[in-house]
Amino acid sequence: MGHSSTAESEDGVLSVDSPLSNDGDNFGGSSNGGVVLKKGPWTAAEDAILVEYVKKHGEGNWNAVQKHTGLARCGKSCRLRWANHLRPNLKKGAFTSEEERIIIELHAKMGNKWARMAAHLPGRTDNEIKNYWNTRIKRRQRAGLSLYPPDLCLQSLPENQQQLSSPRIYDGDKACDILQSNGYWAPNIMFDSLNSLRYAPAVPGIPGSVSMGNGFASPHSYGFVPQTIGVSGQAREPDEPMSDYESGGINEAPMFSRTRTDSCVNKSFQSFGLCYPYDTDHTKKLLSSDFNPDTDFMSDVTYSASEHFSNAQKSELPSLQYQETGLGVWDPPPESFDSLVQSPLSGPLPSHCPSPGSSGLLEDLIYEAMALGKSENQSSARATSSNVSHGEVADGSALRTCSTEFKGCIDSNSPSGNSMGSLFSRYTPTTGRSLEDDVTMHHVKSEVFDPSWILDDESKVDYSRPDAMLGSCWVEQSGPASKQRGSTTDSIAALLGDTSASASTRGFTSCSWNNMPPVCQISDIP
DNA sequence: AAGCTCAGCAACCGCGGACTA
DNA sequence: TTAGTCCGCGGTTGCTGAGCT
Q1: Is A290's CB less than 7 Å from nucleic acid strand C?
Q2: Residue A44: pLDDT over 80
Q3: Rounded to an integer, what distance in angstroms lies between the CA atom of residue A424 and that of residue A113?
Q4: Could you read off the pLDDT of A106-160 as tens digits, one per residue?
Q5: Residue ranges of region Disordered (predicted)?
């Protein structure tokens, strides 16, 4: 169609003499060999020209398109148009639940590697995925929800620890490569000294408390929005498909511990905002040689409620709840969480356990909870303080003896003891039923954000009570409690908008305490 | 009905890696 | 080895339509 470079201003497209000019890039210019290149939306005629060209010459050599066809489009634009709209086998329409699930997993695994993610989603383009994700981010930010299902964050911890054994994490590879090496993000040096703590509780009766603390309180937690903490597997991602994994399944074990673990710190972190499990830039920093996991993570982490959104909005995976000074020091903001949570405990601590107060935001909470819980049930501490292995925990006998809800917060079955892979494996449909099916299969109660919680005096919390410990996210199959929060959850549902179901009916499902989490690797992901 | 807001999407832009001469 | 070119990727922008006031 012999496109004149001067006859393309119809259809609302940019005029050929648009001020948008060549930026010097061979692709991006508005002129090419004297031909003024067009910008803006493509017309059907242009599409036809491009399709015809590709049929004849195949993909690639995009700069030649203009030369061969006269199409007043730069090669870059042609490639984009072809890749995103014209190439065959493109899948149009909304993402399916399965696709959404995959995207979430892949993003947790890869970060913003849209093209690579697209490779896992036949018929989908990187642009589509990127747009989807960005939309999702916005939506979840507005809702004050985590970018990832809480499980993704929490359960990554063991994976992180596993990575520590890999030299690659220090070898200067790109963070994403490192992360991909085992299927998950994880700036995990912080866990270096914690490897042995995974099942050797820093606090008697609190297996994994330290790592859990890191998971939450360190920049590596990249957490979650607190309101979703503790709802792992229960709290429905408002804009995500319900899955076996997320629904947790009534009898699905791994969720429970996370639920309580999260719950322990949930409310204390509710104002912290979004955090993300993976941040390339920060990961690199964290991987730097001068990074001190002991100090940087545990002391300099800040939990700025005033910053999290800006961070999240700006960066790919904002994730970090700390701010970086010009000197590369992570400075706590004035509203550091330390101001909210006073170190509740005194007395000697395990040498390998960061002391409350100094590190320890999460630890503080744990300690406090521990102290309170301990007073109620000493056996809990004894039972869980045993140096149990992953498999041993499966026995659950000890855990079962621990009736205090506190135990759940620090249960070795907690997310910190759950692998990312297990999470993903649970995400991965194994039953064949749709994600939506799961919504109906489980009576669930959504986690909701209760702003008042964070304002509560810590002393008001009765840690001996599960509902106190868990706050709004305490699992409730049915009953008055679930109704209590109905209005809030409904409002959340309304906020989320994209769900057909009320938040009240989504997100939460009770989980067995003592079931053992399956452990598998993220490599399960296609 | 008009105006406003916002989510979703398409496209642009700049950067950087790969390749080649 | 270096410079030039091609191409892909990721971030960002701007348009459009739907929903709300």
Answers
A1: no
A2: yes
A3: 18
A4: 888 778 888 888 888 888 888 888 888 888 877 777 777 777 766 665 544 433 3
A5: 1-33
- Name residues whose C-beta falls within 8 Å of residue A384's C-beta, 6 or more positions apart in sequence: A201, A204, A205, A206, A207, A398, A399, A402, A407, A410, A411, A412
* DSSP string for residues in A335-352: T-GGGTS-----S---TT
DSSP H stretches of helix in A167-208: 175-182
Chain A 210-269 contacts with nucleic strand B (CB below 7 A): none
Both structure tokens of A433: 């039923």
Give chain A's domains with CATH numbers. 1-88 (1.10.10.60), 138-438+509-524 (no CATH)
CA of A251 to C1' of B9 (A): 40
Q: What is the pLDDT of residues A392-448, one digit of tens each?
A: 333 333 333 333 333 333 333 333 333 333 333 333 333 333 333 333 333 323 333
Distance, angstroms, CA A113 to C1' B16? 15
Residues A384 and A386: their CA atoms lie apart, in Å, by: 5
Q: Could you check: is the Cβ of residue A87 within 7 Å of any atom of nucleic acid strand C?
A: no
Structure tokens that stand for A355 in this block: 């002391």
Please give the helix or strand (H or E) that residue A324 lies within, else none. Answer: strand A323-324
Residue with tokens 């409002």: A491
The pair of structure tokens assigned to A517 is: 């989490």
Element (H, E) at A247: helix A244-247
The answer to whether the beta carbon of residue A35 comes closer than 7 angstroms to any atom of strand B is no
Alpha-carbon distance of A32 to A47, in angstroms, equals: 19
H helices present in A456-511, as ranges: 466-470, 480-484, 486-496
A208 is written with which tokens?
A: 């994994």
In a 13 Å sphere around the CA of A455, the CA atoms on its Cβ side amount to: 4
CA distance A440 to A438: 5
pLDDT digits (tens, 9 = 90+) for A464-484: 333 333 333 322 233 333 333
pLDDT, residue A71, reads 85
Which H or E run contains A422? helix A420-427
A28: the nucleotide nearest its CA (via C1') is B13
Residues 294-333 of A with CB under 7 A from strand C: 314, 316
Dist CA A217 CA A209 (whole Å)? 11
- How does DSSP classify residue A411? -
**Cβ neighbours around A100 below 10 Å, total:** 20
- Asked if strand C comes closer than 7 Å to A453 Cβ, the answer is no
CA dihedral A401, A372, A412, A380 (to 10 degrees): -20
